[in-house]
Amino acid sequence: MSGINRGLNLTQQVAETLGSAIIRGTYGTDNPVPSEAVLCEQLQVSRSAAREAVKSLAAKGLITSRARQGIRILPETEWNLFDADVLRWMRDSNPSLALLKEFTELRVAIEAEAAKLAAERQNTAKIEKIAVALERMRQAESGLDDPLESDIAFHLSILDASENRFFMQLGRIIDTTLRVSIRFTNMRTGVRAGVHADHKKIYDGIVNNKPDEAAAMSAELMESALATINQALEEQETL
Amino acid sequence: MSGINRGLNLTQQVAETLGSAIIRGTYGTDNPVPSEAVLCEQLQVSRSAAREAVKSLAAKGLITSRARQGIRILPETEWNLFDADVLRWMRDSNPSLALLKEFTELRVAIEAEAAKLAAERQNTAKIEKIAVALERMRQAESGLDDPLESDIAFHLSILDASENRFFMQLGRIIDTTLRVSIRFTNMRTGVRAGVHADHKKIYDGIVNNKPDEAAAMSAELMESALATINQALEEQETL
DNA sequence: TTAAACAGTTTTATCATATAAATAATACAT
DNA sequence: ATGTATTATTTATATGATAAAACTGTTTAA
């Protein structure tokens, strides 16, 4: 296997190169994915390593591999967007606004409902963590903390306070994309002064046991991010 | 490997038995998961088959496997609930109302937003499919179609009409659990006469380009399902 | 002429075995 | 008592061999 390592084992390295190549569109009908045997040779790894990588990518919905048919790339609709690797490969190789838009639409749905549930549940320990993240955001406004990390911490802490396992787990992939999303929004609109204030409204709704307010404030925040993305998309189409 | 097959290959069969056993709570600190070598012997399969199964379960967040440490079960918070297998194993082995409740909370978030988007997008072909599913539900009320399947088709067609890849993919795991959910709701409340009417309200919102109405009707429907579950949960606690 | 049956070939699936690397537990030396 | 070297266990990787699947083309029968 070629040079780089990054603490991944061989199988993971193979999956990484193959997976990102597939999503990057390297392969197609004219240039099909080579057979396992050829892959071993090309990447200079054993069949075990290649095989396990292929299996892993099949589990992610990227490919199928059947005897006598070889490895086939599945249509994009099969790609598992809730897999952190797939999502990362997509955002790195094909940083389309369309994906960011769809992801933000998901966030509108999830985060608003999570805020509502957090307000209902009233888990004081977890709400305190939201407060801590919010305070970090305030500090960030005067340069005393990282605006990106504190922002992410805030959103994740709300998901956690929802005490819903599905929402909590979505936090993991939201984390992946939030970094791009926040960076993008800040790039477009500039780091506004009102960021902390907007987020505080959500927190207030939660801590004051006002589920609907919390949800509304969250939805508002997300919708404005969505508006920024849509605006950028329209500009793009004008070209 | 023991008798049954079900069209799965060996690796998948091993993953199936091991995965469901783990989630069923067969293993614990007193009874740890055996090493790969022992697994091969117990299940009468080769090392390759066992290894690939272990890798697959690791990818699902159920276990880790490190040299000299063996296979360890990860805390439940790591289990990937967005993996169809994991979700199925959980619902089959531990059919807890709590999970159903959390899942329905996810559906409240997702389906309402999807209905809203579907109304905005106005993809006539996809909206027509919602209409078809709705018609099937009407037929089902007089016993001319399957109430469960038509209900599922309706909800999935809305996700599809949202034209959001994340929502569409959630359809797959929603499908898995919807079957339990609908069955449960119908068992509790009886198959009400108004099912078709309630769903039609959502459809009307979509077809008439009324995003907020569609979302509200969807949320209402979901919330009532949630209420049924919460009621059952309270009864359970009273015991 | 058409379709069904068959054989041949390619490719993955599974098995078996061997060696390397990682690491937990133990023994040892300081 | 503390840090270090050794040992044993377990996964990681490699290799080679056989089995099963399924596409392709050909032959055969209706």
On the 0-100 scale, what is the average pLDDT of chain A?
A: 90
Assembly state of the chains shown: homodimer
| SSE run of chain A | HHHEEHHHHHHH
Helix content of chain A: over 70%
Structural class of chain A: mainly alpha
> Distance between termini of chain A?
42 Å
Dominant shape of chain A: elongated
Count of individual beta strands of chain A: 2
Question: Could you explain how this protein is built, in words?
Answer:
The structure is a homodimer of 239-residue chains. The first copy, chain A, has 239 residues and is mainly alpha-helical. Helices cover 71% and strands 3% of the residues of chain A. The first copy, chain A, has a two-stranded antiparallel ribbon with strand order 1-2. In chain A, a hairpin with a 3-residue loop joins strand 1 and strand 2. The longest helix of chain A has 28 residues, at 211-238. Chain A is elongated. In chain A, 39% of the residues are buried. The interface between A and B is medium-sized, with 31 and 31 residues. Chain A binds a DNA duplex (30 and 30 nucleotides) through residues 9-11, 35-37, 45-49, 51, 54, 65-71.
